[in-house]
Fold each of these.
Amino acid sequence: MRASEKLASEQLASEKLASEQLKKPNANSRSNMGRIFYVILVVVGFLLISAASQDLSAIQREDATALSEYDELRELFYMTTEFSGANSIYTTADSRPEERAESRGADQSRAGADIPGPVQHDPFAGLSELNPDFIGWIAIDGTGIDYPVVRGRDNSYYLSATFTGSSNPAGSIFMDHNLERGFDAPLCLLYGHNMRNGSMFAPLNQYLDHAFMEEHPDVYIITTEGVLLVYRVFDARRTDMWDTTYDIDLMVSSFTAVTGYTPGDASRFLLLSTCTPSADRSERMLVYAALVG
């Protein structure tokens, strides 16, 4: 082989080797980039899962805090008041034990059970001292609805404040603040949240089931004046937050249009309002009840 050909051959081999060496780092680089991208995905996924877990834990803590508060309020209420919606019983704890036992009969509820504690002349004094906005107590047998009712200065505060004023998504059961006559008004509107854990007014959504309505027809309210009001549920429907029912000036006419009843001094009605499980955050659930006792 001539010297020139040998030199050309060696040069070609050298260039080929250099090219192969250049290719190897590129392949390694792509492999490294793939590993880095995978690690980033894993880290991001972990952070998202961690954040979601923390949010869920925070929600569970808030729910537990609200449940605990309302359990304590029930203890305070039933410590000085015997109230069984199933038997329409309402007596104060300072009545004689034998009278209380006789009035309860065979069908006892948690509200009618003997709960040891101090006797107060005014069974609502403790709750009124805790919150001057306290106006009564609502209970519907078999639903878990068993809460104090308040009326604030507006319709916003108690959306995120519990009975004791703690900030909590559970809020309170509250009356429309425009109803200055309270439960003496011919048409009362109460609000409560539809909580994920089934508390507050969540059970109201079940009133779309006629069988459920027949099994849980009565709504019991004790006012701070000691008056027991019994309402009978007769209708339920889904609507939205812009329904004229929520406009006090139009509420009576809207109520009449839907139910055919005209609220007046001789007939009093109760509307219970909550959200629905729907993804539509503007959707609302309304339950209609008429005073029967």
Amino acid sequence: MAAGVLRAGIMTRRVHIVGCRRSGTTLLMELMWLSFEFSGRHAHEISVFEPIPEGETLYLTKKPPDTIRIGEIFQADPNLHVIAMLRDPRAVITSKHKNRPDVYFSGYFRWKQYVDALEAFRDHPRFILIRYEDLLIDPDATQCRINAQLSFLQKKRKFSTYPLGVEVSNNASNSLNGVRPFDISRIDGWKNHLPRVNGQLRDHPEMIKDLIDAGYEETDDWVKMLEGEKFYSQNYKDSRPHILKRFESNLRYRLKIRKYLQRI
């Protein structure tokens, strides 16, 4: 059965985390599990379209690609609560994954696509947008904000106690590049990858305006630091999928959406 159904008089809620890859979705997943009471969770990533196991009453999941697919079911399911992570795109496009250390793991195109998709939920009472930077700077304030909006959550401990006593799966550890304490130096880590930023800016000049619109810059003065830098480019995840692949994905998710709506 899906989230939002009544089992033996007990309502099942689901808290699902989305956002562009390398935006902190895994970190938030582990913090939520560590700090709030849930009846269960998936070990790492599973789509919201997968049913909640029988017997669960408050289930925690996450899946970044669901960001662009979740709109219709989110509006229809009153017991689906969504938390989205937002991170400076320059940090997203310069982040690497332990499983693929030779490439940058996400491109600007994907960040922009996901941010645009999230605009439809911005003022919804079951939706929370969390900035990765705010989470690092003041984890406990971020936790309080989540708890204030999702008042059904029962707090166990503070976000700031992470990673004390934390055990994560291998997949989660790889996504986190190891379990580490909060480190605000990660916020400006993109400055160590200026050729990558320069290459993505060349391909996506709209980044300048998008950074201002998202509140990450007030002006375009930051571009000056790219003067004289080389242009790094790669094929991995930096362009739109082939049109046939997009068609297949759209059709597949159309069927998943229909099935989800039938379940609830």
Amino acid sequence: MSGTSVDGLDVAYCRFGEKNSYTIVASKTYKYPDSLKNRLKNNMTLSTPDLLELDAELGYYFGYTVNKFLKEYRLPKPQAIASHGHTVYHNPGKSYTLQIGKGSHIAAVTGLTVVCDFRSTDVALGGQGAPLVPVGDQFLFAQYDYCLNLGGIANISVKQNNKRIAWDIGPCNLPVNVLMYTAGKEFDRNGETGKKGRLIPALLHALNRLPYYKKRAPKSLGREWIEKEIMPHLRAHKNVSNVLRTYYEHIAIQISAAIKTKGATVLVTGGGAHNKFLMQLIHQKTNAAIIAPQPEIIDFKEALIFAYLGYLRLHNKVNSLSSVTGAKKDSVGGAIYS
């Protein structure tokens, strides 16, 4: 699993059993080499040949990292690898989505079956191609009313009228990391930089008025939307602490608007769940029980669920819900290389 925040590559060795049981046998996040990380961060500026080269290189990197992981933890070879890839472009309105990290190259390096490109079939059927994690929420985490993921983008899923629905709420960690990078740091540990700042009312008002928030689900976001709609507002102000304080307030407001059931149980995962200040704001603004699970689930829930999506694909079972994405029908998504 490689997210929009470019924190690193999450690798999880997972087993699935009867009655939707699961075990994360081992897990680790591998930080990207600086040269690869910089190109991933700036992938939208690359020429077509350079992007194709990065696609192949990333596939090799994924494969070699999996081999290293299996050796490091002395694990037997798995049935398959499920790879989300790294999202470069996502515009379902124009019927395209692109996740790089070629599955053929992962298979060539590891000698294992690889399932990848999970989003394209759903997009071809008129869907958003995202979020896909709600399939796992429905079967692996059904005990919670809401499942909230605070990654580069914040997304949420909930069962409504006997159907699972989900959507991207808005940006989350990605703009924070971009701002902290300009200040010479990789991320805002515990939200400490933002906590020191003061609210900028005009900025908060401008962010909350963005048209995306008025759109009804299904809806999803890509990095290009964040670069166009969010970052210009944030970059218009010089004090990073004040900008982050305001941005955290904005995130918490949008999340609280998405959680409509009083007293609901909300499972919170993703890197943002480690941000104590952001979590404090979410607690303050919701009438729900905000539950942060054990660190392994916080950090590797998405990797676990994409392993599950790969498992479903190999068994020719539905792994993309039209009730979530708005596609014409449920589908079995994912390309297979072996």
